[in-house]
# Entry
Amino acid sequence: MTGKTFKQQVIGTILIVLLLSLLSLAASCWGNPNASDPYSSALRVVPAVLIPIGAAWLAFCVQRRVAFTKALFDVWQKIVVTVQDAIQYTHSPTHTQAEYAKVMHSLSCRIDDVRGAFRNVGEERTALSHETRKFVLAIQHAKSLSACASALATYGFPEKKSIGLYPFESLKQISSVISRLGYGSSITSQDSEIARDTILALWGILRGELLKELDRDYPDYPDTPFKA
# Structure
C-alpha cells in the first residue's frame, strides 16, 4: 500500500466512523426516550460496534503499509547495486560479453522487481481471454518448437492500453543505454562517456521519484558542514 493510499484509507475510515457514530447518537437522542424502545437501544450500541471495526481496518492498513515499505526498500537496495554496476560497466576497459550479459541480466531483473511492487500506470484488471487460454493450451500440447511458433503466430497479444505504462521509465531507459553501448573492442572512450553521463542523468530522475515512495524523514543530527 503506497503512502497516498494509506493516508486516504486512514482519513476515510476515521471520517466514516465519526460520521456514523454522530448520526447514530443524534438519532438515538431524537428518537423515543423510552429505554425500552428497541430502535433507540440499537442506535446507542452502534458507536461501540463501529469503533472496533474501524480500529481493526486501520490495523490492517498499517500492516499492509509496513509490508509494502519493507518490500520496496529491498527493491530499492537492489536497484542501487544494479545501477552502479551499469555505471561501472561504462568504465570497463574491455567491455566483454560476459560483463555485458551480467549487467543486462541484472537490469532486467530490477525492471520486473518494480512490477512486483507497483502496478503499471493505467493498468486494467482483466480476466484471461479465450484466446490466451487457447494459446497456453497449444504450448502445453506442442511437441516441437515449430509447433510453438505456429501457436505464437496466431496469438493476439494484449492491447497496450490494458497493460498500462511502466511506472519508472528511467530504469528501462538505463537498460536501453547499455544495450546501445553493447560490448566488444569497437566501443570508444567517447561512447562510454556518453553512456555514463546519460545513465547518471536517468539515475537522478529515477532516484528522485522512487524515493518519494519511501517513508523518510530529516535526520536529527546531520553530519554536513553546509547550510540548507
About this structure: Residues 190 and 196 are 10 Å apart (CA to CA). The mean pLDDT is 86. The first helix runs from residue 3 to 30.
